[in-house]
Backbone:
């Protein structure tokens, strides 16, 4: 049987929309959906964030926690401040907790983004009730498929051992582009090169 | 524990898009999705039928059978013939089997529609691997919720006894109208009056 | 200066949504928009007919007359009857007059469709206040461009001689297909062959 | 005959997407469309800016100049910097020149926004070939109507005296809200109070 690896803990500078910081350890027992985004990523604004809002409205909060993660890897001056993301969250009516991913002192993508080896934004991550990685999608994801994956994880007992959700690394994002497309913003090669190395130390 | 009742067998005049007639009995072991529609129902054309097509494209055919059911209860002269529905299926690229619900000799809604006590079109019905009724939705249904319901049914063993999917009689369809709205076409009161009587003999 | 040719008169079997038959001659002095469609043409249902409805809601009825023309060239048994188009008009809330194009005794496309040498459905035709052809579009047409063309024609005096609206034979419809696409339904080659001959006798 | 007043000159801190600053005086002879927006205004991102892009793609550049105006009246820290708007323009593929409206030293809305007495964002302004105000729309505007208004202005001679385009102060924006809705972001009352006074000195 396939062994499921634990999801890396969040490494967040500061939180919005929540009275106290969140940790995956503290959410154990619930399914967790992480919506990694950037406020200036059109694909995040058009479909990633509205989809996360629909998930929060559709499934019981006792079963699933929806979390936004602001993973800024470009335009730091424009979207890197707490004031910028706070204004964005206010105007776009984001109702779930949002953590700001911690920037690396060495440059490159922020630390949680690196720990998950994300390819860009939006990235949707599903973690099961036992804190294990179950799915990671970069780019557009259909509601039908997402609803099915969430229901599968919710149905699992908090103590059972479960098979893996099929989670191919899909994504209609242009594989060669360094800019954002309608589907998402891909990490440029210059940032992904050191990423593999860092991942091993975080995961 | 709640007892689940068997889904009434289909009573169909003729089939399209399939080399041989279908029965629920013959589909035992699979989840079955029935999309009841009328070709001149805007809510069916806009969202009910495209949603059924997405389901067929998303889930394995070994696990779920998607079936259209043409339940004509108005405009019989316009949409009641096999030629009419065949032309519609061709132009709208409907790829799943479609049965034409059998008209009642007594007037009123067609027989399968009556057996399921449907309120109008579109109506989406989910039947589990054991042939039992699990959900019936009239009007618009979100993909997230539908994906979750289907995954729940697919995950069940063909021999297990399972709890009921929550399936409230939702539907944004105007409860007073006798015409179609953007969400669907409701059975007029004049047709639903005899319906209760018939239902008891079929269900 | 380019000479503008008169728009061929409508040759209609019967009218719906109007107390008396319409003629282009009787509408002289107004701009006329003809939306040629088939009730089983997905591109007509999705964008052609809703666009015609928006035109009727946006511009003064003293300036422009919006007319539907049911130009059945396929699936005659399904969509060729008055009952079929009447049911369709009712369910889709078409509020403007609709004429049923007269079928040819020789086979081929109906007579008005032939007189205008239409390539398929939807086709949108603009006729100026003096009854002259000004634009003919097959397939999808942007609202911005259509609004501009209509305003140009409305601004013309009923007696002035005006330059032609630029009306290239656009259309994103697959030029090789004989079936309907999302954009429209093209006349098959077998029907367009005799079309050129007939056109000369009608135009 | 109604007298048309000259459009107030732009008062802009800096320009993007253009090699040299623009002035209305320098654009005399062309129709000018000004799209006033804020980068964190959902109604601007969803429909105002895409509509301006469609206008630029549809009409000849010899006839109409499309200009963006970044009129920041809230969230100055988040969207007030040149870096912020530059990143936004890059990611959202805005191809027309964008000026940053000059902030007032006295507080309140920026100066061009005040000179035009705009109610919020998005606001679309049409100026004729002679530099005169012809239309000002706050909130959502249909493409059909906009296409008609633009064509009317383009058709006017650069030297003729023309009647006013009908330009009611429409807008589906919630009149009581101080936050953004799906349609736009309205100036709060605390900012509009001093606005009337300022307007008279600018207009």
Residues:
């Amino acid at each position: 049987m396939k062994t499921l690896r634990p999801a890396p803990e969040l490494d967040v500078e500061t939180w919005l929309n929540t009275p106290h910081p969140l940790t995956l350890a503290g959410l154990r027992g619930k399914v967790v959906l992480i919506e990694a985004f950037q406020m200036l990523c059109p694909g995040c604004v058009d479909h990633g964030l509205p989809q996360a809002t629909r998930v929060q409205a559709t499934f019981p909060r006792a079963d699933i926690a929806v979390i936004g993660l602001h993973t800024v890897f470009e335009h730091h001056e424009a979207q890197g401040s707490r004031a910028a993301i706070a204004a964005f969250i206010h105007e776009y009516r984001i109702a779930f907790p949002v953590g700001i991913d911690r920037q690396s002192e060495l440059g490159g993508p922020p630390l949680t983004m690196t720990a998950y080896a994300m390819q860009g934004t939006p990235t949707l991550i599903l973690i099961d009730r036992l804190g294990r990685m179950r799915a990671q999608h970069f780019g557009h994801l259909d509601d039908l498929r997402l609803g099915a994956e969430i229901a599968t994880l919710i149905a699992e007992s908090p103590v059972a051992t479960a098979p893996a959700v099929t989670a191919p690394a899909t994504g209609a994002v242009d594989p060669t582009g360094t800019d954002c497309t309608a589907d998402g913003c891909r990490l440029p090669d210059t940032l992904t090169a050191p990423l593999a190395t860092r991942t091993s130390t975080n995961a």
Summary: Confidence is low (pLDDT under 50) at residues 166-172, 193-203 of chain A.
